[in-house]
Amino acid sequence: MAPSAISLDEVAHINHVALTEKDINIEHNVDDHVAFGGDDQWFYNPKTKRFDLSRGSTRKITLDADDGIRNHRGVMIDPDKTLLVVIDMQNYFVHPSFHDHSEGVKTVQPLISVIQKCRREGIQVCWLNWGIDDADLRAMPPAVTRGFNKALAHEKGHGWHVGLGARLASGERCLFRDTWNADIYDPLKEHVAPSDVHFHKARMSGLWSPELPMHRWLRASGKKTLLFAGVNTDQCLLGTLTDAYSWGWDCILISDCAATMTGLGAKEVCDYNIATNMGFVTESEVFCRAESF
Questions:
Q1: Hydrolase among the record's keywords (predicted)?
Q2: Does 285 have pLDDT greater than 50?
Q3: What is the mean pLDDT of the chain?
Protein backbone atom coordinates (compact mmCIF):
# COMPACT_ATOMS: atom_id res chain seq x y z
CA MET A 1 0.00 0.00 0.00
CA ALA A 2 1.04 3.60 -0.47
CA PRO A 3 2.45 5.39 2.59
CA SER A 4 -0.22 6.58 5.00
CA ALA A 5 -0.69 10.16 6.15
CA ILE A 6 2.12 11.73 8.13
CA SER A 7 2.19 10.27 11.63
CA LEU A 8 2.05 12.29 14.85
CA ASP A 9 5.73 11.49 15.41
CA GLU A 10 6.54 12.94 11.99
CA VAL A 11 4.55 16.07 12.75
CA ALA A 12 6.35 16.44 16.08
CA HIS A 13 9.73 16.08 14.35
CA ILE A 14 8.86 18.66 11.68
CA ASN A 15 7.64 21.09 14.33
CA HIS A 16 10.82 20.54 16.33
CA VAL A 17 13.00 21.30 13.30
CA ALA A 18 10.92 24.33 12.37
CA LEU A 19 10.54 25.84 15.82
CA THR A 20 13.65 24.91 17.78
CA GLU A 21 16.01 27.86 18.02
CA LYS A 22 19.43 26.91 16.67
CA ASP A 23 22.69 28.20 18.10
CA ILE A 24 24.74 28.62 14.93
CA ASN A 25 28.22 30.05 15.30
CA ILE A 26 28.62 32.08 12.12
CA GLU A 27 31.29 34.73 12.00
CA HIS A 28 29.78 37.19 9.55
CA ASN A 29 29.51 40.93 9.45
CA VAL A 30 25.78 41.19 8.80
CA ASP A 31 26.31 44.65 7.30
CA ASP A 32 28.29 43.04 4.48
CA HIS A 33 26.27 39.86 4.05
CA VAL A 34 22.73 39.16 2.94
CA ALA A 35 20.93 36.41 4.89
CA PHE A 36 18.54 33.95 3.25
CA GLY A 37 16.18 31.74 5.24
CA GLY A 38 14.82 31.75 8.76
CA ASP A 39 16.80 30.12 11.55
CA ASP A 40 18.63 27.88 9.06
CA GLN A 41 20.41 30.48 6.95
CA TRP A 42 22.58 30.95 3.93
CA PHE A 43 24.69 34.09 3.62
CA TYR A 44 25.52 35.95 0.42
CA ASN A 45 28.52 38.24 0.17
CA PRO A 46 27.82 41.02 -2.39
CA LYS A 47 31.55 41.71 -2.71
CA THR A 48 32.63 38.18 -3.61
CA LYS A 49 29.21 37.23 -5.08
CA ARG A 50 29.43 33.93 -3.22
CA PHE A 51 26.83 32.08 -1.19
CA ASP A 52 27.94 30.52 2.09
CA LEU A 53 25.97 27.32 2.76
CA SER A 54 28.38 26.08 5.43
CA ARG A 55 26.38 27.32 8.42
CA GLY A 56 29.45 28.21 10.44
CA SER A 57 31.43 25.05 9.72
CA THR A 58 35.12 25.17 10.58
CA ARG A 59 35.93 23.40 7.28
CA LYS A 60 34.61 24.55 3.92
CA ILE A 61 34.91 23.82 0.21
CA THR A 62 34.39 26.65 -2.30
CA LEU A 63 32.89 25.78 -5.69
CA ASP A 64 33.56 28.62 -8.10
CA ALA A 65 31.06 29.69 -10.76
CA ASP A 66 30.80 32.24 -13.52
CA ASP A 67 28.21 35.01 -13.43
CA GLY A 68 26.27 33.92 -16.58
CA ILE A 69 22.99 32.16 -15.82
CA ARG A 70 24.51 31.05 -12.51
CA ASN A 71 24.10 34.65 -11.28
CA HIS A 72 26.78 34.22 -8.61
CA ARG A 73 30.49 33.49 -8.28
CA GLY A 74 30.29 30.29 -6.29
CA VAL A 75 29.13 28.55 -3.13
CA MET A 76 30.85 27.40 0.04
CA ILE A 77 29.73 24.06 1.49
CA ASP A 78 30.49 21.98 4.57
CA PRO A 79 31.87 18.62 3.30
CA ASP A 80 30.88 16.84 6.51
CA LYS A 81 27.23 17.77 5.92
CA THR A 82 27.26 17.13 2.17
CA LEU A 83 26.02 14.04 0.31
CA LEU A 84 26.57 13.07 -3.33
CA VAL A 85 23.30 11.57 -4.63
CA VAL A 86 23.77 9.41 -7.75
CA ILE A 87 20.40 8.69 -9.34
CA ASP A 88 19.43 5.77 -11.62
CA MET A 89 22.90 5.01 -12.98
CA GLN A 90 21.63 1.48 -13.50
CA ASN A 91 22.25 -1.13 -16.17
CA TYR A 92 18.65 -0.89 -17.38
CA PHE A 93 18.97 2.81 -18.16
CA VAL A 94 22.59 3.12 -19.28
CA HIS A 95 23.93 -0.28 -20.42
CA PRO A 96 24.03 -0.64 -24.26
CA SER A 97 22.27 -4.00 -24.08
CA PHE A 98 19.09 -2.13 -23.18
CA HIS A 99 19.39 1.22 -24.87
CA ASP A 100 21.81 3.61 -26.50
CA HIS A 101 21.95 6.21 -23.74
CA SER A 102 25.08 7.83 -25.15
CA GLU A 103 24.63 10.96 -23.05
CA GLY A 104 24.37 8.86 -19.91
CA VAL A 105 27.55 6.99 -20.81
CA LYS A 106 29.35 10.33 -21.19
CA THR A 107 28.68 11.10 -17.54
CA VAL A 108 30.56 8.05 -16.26
CA GLN A 109 34.14 9.37 -16.34
CA PRO A 110 33.38 12.78 -14.83
CA LEU A 111 31.22 11.05 -12.23
CA ILE A 112 34.07 8.72 -11.28
CA SER A 113 36.30 11.77 -10.81
CA VAL A 114 33.67 13.39 -8.60
CA ILE A 115 33.30 10.22 -6.52
CA GLN A 116 37.06 10.06 -6.01
CA LYS A 117 37.08 13.71 -4.95
CA CYS A 118 34.28 12.97 -2.49
CA ARG A 119 36.33 10.16 -0.98
CA ARG A 120 39.27 12.51 -0.45
CA GLU A 121 37.09 15.20 1.13
CA GLY A 122 35.06 12.86 3.32
CA ILE A 123 31.80 13.48 1.43
CA GLN A 124 29.51 10.48 1.66
CA VAL A 125 28.02 8.93 -1.51
CA CYS A 126 24.42 7.80 -1.94
CA TRP A 127 23.12 5.51 -4.71
CA LEU A 128 19.40 6.10 -5.33
CA ASN A 129 17.91 3.61 -7.79
CA TRP A 130 14.69 2.12 -9.03
CA GLY A 131 14.22 -1.14 -7.15
CA ILE A 132 10.65 -2.40 -6.97
CA ASP A 133 8.82 -5.48 -5.76
CA ASP A 134 5.29 -6.83 -6.18
CA ALA A 135 3.98 -4.72 -3.31
CA ASP A 136 5.26 -1.59 -5.09
CA LEU A 137 3.48 -2.64 -8.27
CA ARG A 138 0.17 -3.10 -6.46
CA ALA A 139 0.45 0.44 -5.04
CA MET A 140 1.82 1.99 -8.24
CA PRO A 141 -0.12 5.02 -9.55
CA PRO A 142 -1.38 4.63 -13.14
CA ALA A 143 0.67 7.60 -14.35
CA VAL A 144 3.90 5.94 -13.23
CA THR A 145 3.18 2.63 -14.98
CA ARG A 146 2.08 4.48 -18.11
CA GLY A 147 5.54 6.06 -18.43
CA PHE A 148 7.11 2.61 -18.64
CA ASN A 149 4.57 1.06 -21.03
CA LYS A 150 4.93 2.96 -24.26
CA ALA A 151 5.73 -0.35 -25.93
CA LEU A 152 2.01 -1.08 -25.68
CA ALA A 153 1.44 1.63 -28.28
CA HIS A 154 4.81 1.56 -30.02
CA GLU A 155 6.37 -1.81 -30.71
CA LYS A 156 9.88 -1.35 -29.30
CA GLY A 157 10.53 -4.87 -28.10
CA HIS A 158 12.12 -5.40 -24.68
CA GLY A 159 14.02 -2.12 -24.72
CA TRP A 160 13.32 1.21 -23.09
CA HIS A 161 9.55 1.01 -22.52
CA VAL A 162 9.11 -2.60 -21.50
CA GLY A 163 6.95 -1.96 -18.45
CA LEU A 164 7.83 -2.00 -14.77
CA GLY A 165 8.04 -5.57 -13.52
CA ALA A 166 7.68 -7.09 -17.00
CA ARG A 167 9.91 -9.96 -18.11
CA LEU A 168 13.01 -8.93 -20.02
CA ALA A 169 14.67 -11.07 -22.68
CA SER A 170 17.09 -12.27 -19.98
CA GLY A 171 14.21 -13.59 -17.89
CA GLU A 172 14.67 -10.94 -15.21
CA ARG A 173 11.86 -8.62 -14.24
CA CYS A 174 12.28 -4.98 -15.18
CA LEU A 175 13.83 -2.88 -12.39
CA PHE A 176 13.09 -5.48 -9.72
CA ARG A 177 15.33 -5.45 -6.68
CA ASP A 178 18.40 -7.71 -6.70
CA THR A 179 18.44 -8.12 -10.50
CA TRP A 180 21.31 -7.28 -12.81
CA ASN A 181 19.24 -4.82 -14.84
CA ALA A 182 18.43 -2.83 -11.67
CA ASP A 183 22.00 -2.95 -10.39
CA ILE A 184 24.46 -0.07 -10.59
CA TYR A 185 25.88 0.37 -14.09
CA ASP A 186 28.81 -2.00 -14.45
CA PRO A 187 31.63 0.58 -14.98
CA LEU A 188 30.64 2.28 -11.72
CA LYS A 189 30.44 -0.86 -9.58
CA GLU A 190 34.13 -0.85 -8.64
CA HIS A 191 33.75 2.69 -7.31
CA VAL A 192 31.16 1.75 -4.69
CA ALA A 193 32.50 1.81 -1.11
CA PRO A 194 31.22 0.18 2.10
CA SER A 195 30.55 3.64 3.55
CA ASP A 196 28.08 4.44 0.75
CA VAL A 197 24.35 4.40 1.41
CA HIS A 198 21.83 2.77 -0.94
CA PHE A 199 18.12 3.46 -1.35
CA HIS A 200 15.41 1.98 -3.57
CA LYS A 201 12.67 4.09 -5.08
CA ALA A 202 9.39 3.31 -6.82
CA ARG A 203 8.66 6.78 -8.19
CA MET A 204 10.64 9.35 -10.14
CA SER A 205 11.46 11.02 -6.84
CA GLY A 206 13.21 9.28 -4.00
CA LEU A 207 11.99 11.90 -1.50
CA TRP A 208 8.28 12.24 -2.29
CA SER A 209 7.18 11.02 1.16
CA PRO A 210 8.67 11.75 4.61
CA GLU A 211 8.09 8.09 5.42
CA LEU A 212 10.58 6.87 2.81
CA PRO A 213 13.83 5.36 4.16
CA MET A 214 15.99 7.92 2.36
CA HIS A 215 13.93 10.80 3.75
CA ARG A 216 14.24 9.45 7.29
CA TRP A 217 17.96 8.74 6.92
CA LEU A 218 18.70 12.24 5.61
CA ARG A 219 16.90 13.87 8.51
CA ALA A 220 18.74 11.70 11.03
CA SER A 221 22.14 12.18 9.34
CA GLY A 222 22.19 15.97 9.62
CA LYS A 223 23.19 16.32 5.97
CA LYS A 224 22.29 19.75 4.61
CA THR A 225 23.77 19.94 1.10
CA LEU A 226 22.96 17.43 -1.66
CA LEU A 227 25.06 17.14 -4.81
CA PHE A 228 23.07 15.61 -7.67
CA ALA A 229 24.23 13.40 -10.56
CA GLY A 230 22.65 10.73 -12.74
CA VAL A 231 19.84 10.14 -15.24
CA ASN A 232 17.53 11.43 -16.44
CA THR A 233 18.12 15.09 -15.63
CA ASP A 234 14.56 16.21 -16.36
CA GLN A 235 12.83 13.19 -14.84
CA CYS A 236 14.05 11.23 -11.80
CA LEU A 237 16.91 13.59 -11.00
CA LEU A 238 14.74 16.69 -11.22
CA GLY A 239 11.89 15.00 -9.35
CA THR A 240 14.15 14.12 -6.42
CA LEU A 241 15.89 17.49 -6.48
CA THR A 242 12.57 19.35 -6.49
CA ASP A 243 11.37 17.45 -3.42
CA ALA A 244 14.72 18.00 -1.69
CA TYR A 245 14.41 21.72 -2.41
CA SER A 246 10.85 21.81 -1.05
CA TRP A 247 11.88 20.01 2.14
CA GLY A 248 14.76 22.42 2.76
CA TRP A 249 17.94 20.69 1.64
CA ASP A 250 20.53 22.66 -0.33
CA CYS A 251 20.63 21.39 -3.94
CA ILE A 252 23.65 21.50 -6.26
CA LEU A 253 23.52 19.89 -9.70
CA ILE A 254 26.82 18.67 -11.17
CA SER A 255 25.79 19.37 -14.74
CA ASP A 256 28.18 17.17 -16.74
CA CYS A 257 27.48 14.25 -14.40
CA ALA A 258 23.80 14.35 -15.37
CA ALA A 259 22.17 13.48 -18.69
CA THR A 260 18.86 12.86 -20.40
CA MET A 261 17.51 11.38 -23.62
CA THR A 262 14.63 13.83 -23.84
CA GLY A 263 16.14 16.42 -26.15
CA LEU A 264 13.96 19.52 -26.76
CA GLY A 265 16.41 21.56 -24.66
CA ALA A 266 15.23 19.73 -21.54
CA LYS A 267 18.64 19.58 -19.88
CA GLU A 268 19.34 23.27 -20.52
CA VAL A 269 15.98 24.25 -19.03
CA CYS A 270 16.70 22.12 -15.94
CA ASP A 271 20.14 23.68 -15.53
CA TYR A 272 18.63 27.15 -15.80
CA ASN A 273 15.79 26.57 -13.35
CA ILE A 274 18.03 24.89 -10.80
CA ALA A 275 20.72 27.59 -11.06
CA THR A 276 18.31 30.50 -10.77
CA ASN A 277 15.68 29.11 -8.42
CA MET A 278 16.03 25.72 -6.73
CA GLY A 279 19.75 25.76 -5.98
CA PHE A 280 23.05 25.87 -7.80
CA VAL A 281 24.80 24.29 -10.78
CA THR A 282 28.47 23.38 -11.11
CA GLU A 283 30.66 21.05 -13.21
CA SER A 284 32.88 18.11 -12.34
CA GLU A 285 36.13 19.98 -13.10
CA VAL A 286 35.15 22.83 -10.81
CA PHE A 287 34.20 20.43 -8.06
CA CYS A 288 37.35 18.32 -8.40
CA ARG A 289 39.75 21.26 -8.27
CA ALA A 290 38.02 22.89 -5.29
CA GLU A 291 40.15 22.96 -2.15
CA SER A 292 38.94 22.66 1.41
CA PHE A 293 40.10 25.15 4.01
A1: yes
A2: yes
A3: 88
